[in-house]
Specification:
about 375 residues, two-stranded antiparallel sheet, 8 strands, about 60% helix, globular
């Protein structure tokens, strides 16, 4: 997926020389010269064109991706191919980042806020005059960070598996650039470190120094989580050959969807801690936040549709509305990810009551299904419209 990676058809591979050095480029210049170091029948790296934007270059036997494209391009007629592993990575990585962002903001608020809040019970002052988390909040944080950690690990494994040659991943660290891919790689790696520290703090009993390190990791990790949520949208938006992704609102859509999925993970964590005092107090505050995110997500989708269709006479966004992906779009994204959660949350907020844990759990699952459906239809319809 990362850094101009191209996997070619077997027909094309058989025509190439058996041994060549992988070429890593920066601003159109080769960092490593050709030689007898790597087998490019499996993987090849192409120079980044001027301006650093992803394009599809025509080869004699098909299309090849140059610059920081996502996935790979192959086949005749310019068909762009993205595997299911990329969709899972976009979903799992974004949801892990969204979960960490929500949980870390709550933990930082709890640590540094001195005012009472109806959503969080008043707690005694801890070391260095920081407010201690309640037992309920600690259990919710431990569950949420654990889920986020598992999602991030599985997502990164999907990413490495999609590379086809995972050992080439280290080249992104050896030859960093200012591209979205390079920035995203470092952000993802640092974010994984911050998530690990936060999880360790929620599971283990740390001293004052460990607590300070954890707070710094959560603050820094929250910023990195935003970068991780946005940069995949920036990568897709810079693939010139796919007009469906050519919208400045796409990164914002990925950000809002990931945050909403993060709220879904926290909802699940709350359900698992329902038997503990005060766990359901979280539902009202999270419902208000997630409802606002869903409304903004709808506006972002509408903005993407308007800008994409206005920029192309083929109206590529209509492929989501009436094309082969319309079922997944309307039932998966709109029905499960927008209408059903919004109805449950608004009904609870208007009635000033809390639903049963089973209803909250179903709503959380629907939110996650909606986030996965959004990424699936965007990638699948983008491939179809570019073919």
């Amino acid at each position: 997926m990362f850094g101009c990676l191209v996997r070619n058809d077997a027909r094309v591979q058989s025509r190439w020389p058996p041994k060549r050095q992988v070429r890593v480029s920066q601003c159109g210049k080769n960092v490593l010269s050709e030689g007898a170091g790597a087998d490019c029948r499996t993987t090849k790296w192409y120079p980044v064109p001027r301006g650093g934007r992803a394009v599809l270059r025509r080869r004699s036997s098909g299309w090849a991706t140059a610059s920081e494209g996502v996935g790979h391009a192959r086949g005749r007629g310019g068909e762009v191919a993205f595997g299911e592993l990329i969709v899972w990575y976009l979903f799992l990585g974004g949801t892990a980042a969204g979960s960490f962002a929500v949980l870390s903001v709550i933990d930082l608020y709890t640590a540094f806020s001195h005012a009472g809040d109806p959503c969080f019970p008043r707690m005694p002052l801890g070391c260095q005059r920081h407010r201690l988390r309640s037992t309920t909040q600690g259990r919710i944080a431990r569950t949420g960070y654990s889920i986020a950690f598992v999602m991030l690990v599985v997502g990164m494994l999907c990413l490495l598996a999609d590379l086809g040659r995972p050992e080439a991943f280290y080249l992104l660290f050896l030859y960093p650039t200012s591209s979205f891919v390079s920035i995203g790689t470092f952000a993802l790696s640092l974010f994984a470190v911050c998530l690990t520290i936060a999880l360790a703090e929620s599971v283990l009993t740390l001293g004052p120094v460990g607590e300070k390190v954890s707070l710094v990791a959560k603050a820094f990790g929250a910023a990195l989580a935003v970068v991780v949520m946005i940069y995949t949208g920036l990568l897709l938006e810079n693939v010139v050959a796919v007009s469906l992704w050519r919208s400045v609102w796409l990164p914002a859509l990925f950000l809002l969807s990931a945050l909403s999925c993060g709220c879904g993970v926290v909802f699940l964590s709350v359900c698992l801690c329902e038997n503990y005092t005060g766990a359901l107090r979280w539902f009202r505050g999270l419902s208000l936040v997630d409802a606002a995110l869903i409304v903004l997500e709808v506006l972002a989708v509408a903005a993407c549709a308007i800008t994409v269709n206005a920029a192309s006479a083929d109206r590529p966004f209509d492929a989501l509305l009436v094309g082969e992906q319309s079922c997944a779009f309307w039932f998966g994204f709109v029905g499960c990810g927008i209408l059903a959660p919004l109805a449950i949350e608004v009904s609870a907020l208007v009635a000033r009551r809390t639903h049963r844990s089973s209803v909250i759990a179903v709503m959380a699952v629907l939110i996650l299904v909606g986030g996965l459906s959004l990424r699936f239809v965007l990638v699948s319809a983008g491939v179809q419209t570019a073919a």
